[in-house]
Design goal:
homodimer, about 280 residues, alpha/beta, Rossmann fold, 8-stranded mixed β-sheet, 12 helices, 8 strands, binds adenosine-5'-diphosphate, binds iron/sulfur cluster, binds magnesium ion
Chain lengths: ~280, ~280
């Protein structure tokens, strides 16, 4: 079974890429589970027809409240099969204002494994959609505990998305278990200037010891799909955008050797690399 | 001295509003300090001419590394006066992958108060720009410890921004100290459909026991200012957008009675309220 994690700053397009990637993998005949690991709990919204599904943590809190434990949870309370056949899970977050959101994500992942979710549903690929703005000890737990085995960093042409990705690469280097988890690649979710993005993100990915795996164009079709809560492959199966996600799925399945990244230490070096390619 | 905090989901426009509000307050003759409380450390970028200033936490770590403590930090190492005269601070975040980012923000705020930053610079208004995607115990610390006294929630017409704001309101209710901290209001940073936003955000704000304080239009001028790393008031002082921020500053200064919010308990009720106003 492959465990693939999508990290990147807030609003960069993690959920959009995760949902469309899940769909393309499903089309290849694989059994796919997408696990939202963002307290916003909206990772699987496109897959679930616009619905925000119940979360593992809120279901767990219900059981705790009546004196039971995680083994009282039934898999059908926390795993929802979308019309497409993809299995959807949302970790959820803590009660607002208390507890550790990152720790909560880990708890949710541990519940899935204690309840043998992957085995029960015969899952081939798990896609984890993880918040990447805060690279704290909490949110790095999926890496530390070996869940996020093949990690993709989502970037655009904006400097802050590269800065966030470099920080995540620092966490991967510090926490990944040799041979088990690592950086699988960088994916560009374009903010418009594809020429600039290809050059600067290829250089960034290579500096990390990895590669720019694919570029997803900025597209009104992708935006429209979100409003309709459908993936691009369901909404416009013949479109160029649908083909982009099919190609991404092929790249991801072929690319099974994650590396320990070599992040850029100093922010001034990161800025210098970035400025080099800015149009004069 | 007024301590005003801006909370909201990632990418909603917190830093854009914070920087332009700081500028408008400065124009009113007030001495203003903006403190970025987001590990991305880009809150004061527009104010500092595109530069990412050194953070409190990285400066603190340097001192710790050579066996010193926070009192070895000199204020001029962590507080930078922009050309506009506004004082800029970035809390920064932990070393990636370890430690608690929220706890780090609190540490940075405590260092500012231990070093008597507000007294030394004669600050009238402090603006805290705080990450609101993760409403964990860590990021709620500025509320719990009485720094975030007048809290503004930034929303747009998108449901997820309202969902995030409602979660922050839950944290405020749980943690705010009666009479000291509370919800001061909702600010709309429009995503385009102002008609819909005014209706749904007024209802949401009133349900919380507060009000919709102001609406900032979606505008290419505001976008252009970010690219040039200048506030709207510096870039286009006579523009309608500049006047919007001047009005916001007046509203904020007049509005000094924060409330303990009454957040909407169930997500289904929040969705129902939202759907009521959607165009049929
Ligand atoms: N390639 C793209 N073209 C157009 N819009 C996009 C694209 N990728 C993402 N978006 C839009 O950007 C917004 C943020 O995307 P989302 O996947 O929710 O980000 P994240 O999960 O990283 O917070 C959504 O409204 C989405 O529709
Ligand atoms: N009213 C607006 N009109 C146009 N663009 C905006 C507006 N508000 C914010 N933006 C843009 O949206 C992006 C995100 O804003 P930012 O303030 O960085 O969000 P946050 O601090 O909440 O993450 C920036 O590129 C900014 O220029
Ligand atoms: S470790 Fe991260 S998720 Fe956990 S409380 Fe701290 S900031 Fe929040
Ligand atoms: Mg998302
Ligand atoms: Mg910001």
């Amino acid at each position: 079974m492959r465990q693939i994690a999508i990290y990147g700053k807030g609003g960069i397009g993690k959920s959009t890429i995760a949902a469309n990637l899940s769909m393309a993998l499903k089309e290849m005949g694989l059994r796919v589970m997408q696990v939202g690991c963002d307290p916003k709990r909206d990772s699987t919204r496109i897959l679930a027809g616009g619905r925000l599904i119940p979360t593992v943590l809120e279901t767990f809190r219900e059981e705790l409240r009546i004196g039971k434990d995680e083994y009282a949870i039934s898999l059908k309370d926390i795993i929802f099969q979308a019309q497409s056949g993809i299995y959807c899970v949302e970790s959820g977050g803590p009660e607002p204002g208390i507890g550790c959101a990152g720790r909560g994500v880990l708890t949710a992942l541990q519940i899935l494994s204690d309840l043998k979710a992957f085995e029960t549903y015969g899952i081939d690929v798990a896609i984890y959609d993880v918040l990447g703005d805060v690279v704290c000890g909490g949110f790095a737990m999926p890496i530390r505990h070996g869940y996020a085995q093949e990690i993709y960093l989502i970037c655009s042409g904006g400097f802050m998305s590269i800065y966030a990705a470099n920080n995540i690469a620092k966490a991967i280097r510090r926490l990944s278990r040799r041979g088990e988890t690592g950086l699988a690649g960088v994916i560009c979710n374009s903010s418009g200037d594809e020429q600039f993005e290809k050059v600067v993100l290829s250089q960034f990915a290579e500096a990390l010891g990895s590669k720019l795996v694919h570029l997803v164009p900025r597209s009104p079709v992708i935006q429209a799909c979100e409003v309709e809560s459908r993936t691009v492959l369901e909404h416009s199966p013949q479109s160029e955008e649908a083909e982009v996600f099919r190609e991404l799925a092929r790249q991801v399945m072929d690319n099974d050797r994650p590396v320990i990244p070599k992040p850029i230490e100093e922010i001034s070096d990161l800025e210098a690399m970035y400025r080099e390619h800015l149009p004069k």
